[in-house]
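Lab notebook, bench 4. Still working through the backlog of constructs that have no structural model yet. Next entry is a single chain of 825 residues. Request: give me the structure tokens for it.
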Amino acid sequence: MSTERYDFTSVEAKWQKRWEELGIYRSKADSAKEKKYILEMFPYPSGNIHMGHVRNYSIGDVLARYNRMRGFNVLHPIGYDAFGMPAENAAIERGVHPKDWTYQNIETMRGQLKRLGLSYDWDREIITCSPEYYRWGQWLFLKFFEKGLAYQKKANVNWCPSCETVLANEQVEGGGCWRCSTQVVKRELKQWFFKICDYAKELLDDLGELGGWPEKVKVMQENWIGRSEGAMVDFTLESGKTVTVFTTRPDTLFGCTFFLLAPEHPLVDELEMDSGRKAAVDEFRKSLAAVSEIDRTSAEIEKRGVFTGSYIINPVNGKRVPIWLADYVLMDYGTGAVMAVPAHDERDFAFAKKYDLAIREVVAEEKGAAPKDGAQMREAFSGNGFLVNSARFTGLESDAAKRAIVEELEGQKKGKSAVNYRLKDWLISRQRYWGNPIPIIHCERCGAVAVKEEDLPVILPEDVVISEKGGSPLAKHEGFLNVSCPKCGGEGRRETDTMDTFTCSSWYFLRYVSPKDDVAPFDKEAAAYWMPVDQYIGGIEHAILHLLYSRFFTKVMRDIGLIDVGEPFKNLLTQGMVIKDGAKMSKSKGNVVDPREIIERYGADTARLFILFASPPEKELDWSDQGVQGAYRFLNRLYRIVMRNIEATSAGSKALADESDKELLRALHISIKKVTGDIERFNLNTAISAIMELVNANYKHYDDGGSRGAEVETISAVTEGLLLLLSPFAPHLADELFEAGGGEGSIHLRAWPAYDPDLAKADELTIILQVNGKVRDRVTAPADVDEEEMKRLALTSERLSEFIKDKEVVKVIVVPKKIINLVVK
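Model written out:
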């Protein structure tokens, strides 16, 4: 074997085959062992993995290998999120069936993932578009349906008149169809929903239990759920009909000078209008049909509206206020109706100024202040204060006024206190072919009837014609469409909508615990052992929908007795994006680096080592060709020193131990302590740095000793320790060198090394902690402390916390091993 450079191609192929033969990554429940469920978000099978995949899966693989060596029973599975729109697009563009395209891509990706040497239990692989999997997605839908959590109602969708199909929001570009550019219109269709709102409070409250989640992710979910305390207030049309609004500011009711409805609100069609008004209203509603909700609510776009000619009665003062339609009022938010208080809401203020509507101040900043002339106001005041212009409530502070006004409304049966959520029920209907069929049969006599469990799965037919026009081909497939009603036996029509692909990814982590189960979606005992997932890893882009839907599914499955846990993921790590030339890698930007090229030129271990070393996992990673070459050079340098060590120990050198040997042993134990702690904290880049320092210490030992050699026991211990530390990061090379040194089996079956606390002691330094240049604390730290650890010491200092509380840290200045200064504002 060469001692200069290792043949990564043959080494990696050899050990991947050996691991498979040994079956060392297969897992099974064992109540006698403590488990660790390590999971990365599974990929969509697009055909080729990218460097973002390599980063995500390499992080998970390090944690899986490390925990396995620590003695845990590790579950580390992989699968494919295989339904979805790209497969249908491929069918149209390439003339290939979505199933064929998907499975070809899976085969390609499976080979690429195996080429990376990832420690997956391949016996547990799942593919969501296989009937063996989606059968149980349909079964879960039926359970939701039985529990009243799945229902159908009319909803507005994006419709392309040219392609004759429904478009997802992301398929609408500049108001036009992404495929043909035809102007998109809104069409009302019956859609299926899941009642996620029934779990809004629990989803929000339980965020407090997720101590292992990044705070930013919890805040994003909290904002998405959007809990608001306020009141439901009943306004009355002159016809006597009640229209209810939700407001967080009942203290501003006396300032309501006009009333807003969403253009889509069904009440609009009931309002009495003369022909001129009706024409203006119809034109306004038509003009918004192709405008996205994002554009309608954008603060950058001028608000538009139209007067209906009708009026409504304010319940607190009996005054008539005009009813307008406004583009920034959406049917899906609140009740689709808004009491407009322009003096105390920025959007209402802008709208009132544009259309010359009355502005009435009812909350003053200072107690006893005279009311301002609304016409002279330059901006809305949205804070709390003291009521003015509010009859019997004038002079009350805002919070007291809220309570008093709601109490009066409740006494008059014109309103009540309420909690509202921004979260809306989950629309799961997709008018697409390549998705999980919804197991419902429509009968004119019986309505929507569930398919019998014994008739699952409802198989997605393959003999379909997919074209750009006409919506889902399922609606034209006679064999699929026409069936008997399960309840009355009469003529029925099968549901042709398929489920949102998020339904597949909302429970896949449970299927992994028993992927071949054919009597249930998963084995309850296996789920009780493995769940929850101990460490989940994936991109920040999934922080809301996927994670929220998975939490929702878990809570429902708990409530129907399938599992005992209420949260799916105990700990969450959101890795940063891979950046090249200042932008996220993407085909459209032409800055994609193909992992295959890196693996073929430098090897899988190099690709893994670089992607882990270049940046902390949660940070963005700037791609560097030089960095890849540097990782490759390091692995070969490590290879050479280990081969040199093996030769020295084989020669049986009996040199007496001296101070040089003790320093080398000390370097080993410091490294074990550092690498262990860094992996536990996800500081994988600094863990690799510690391994590099140990390699340097090896070379220095030889340089200092010259030809004298070293004690066999020292070299053996250091070599073994070095390879054990390396093994989660560069698993192929670690096993090859372990075998070259006489090791049997696989190094990945060995125990993780322990360090001697006395030997691992490093000289200590005093680190000065500053805030805005002023010394606020001093702490001791090991002599080898790095910048990341210095930052951690500063951010966890109790004394510093007093000076940075409620402030934003805008900059961190580090003088290595001496000073860290937090710049706050």
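Notes after review: The CA atoms of residues 514 and 522 lie 5 Å apart. Residues 625-650 form the longest helix (26 residues). Flag for follow-up if needed.
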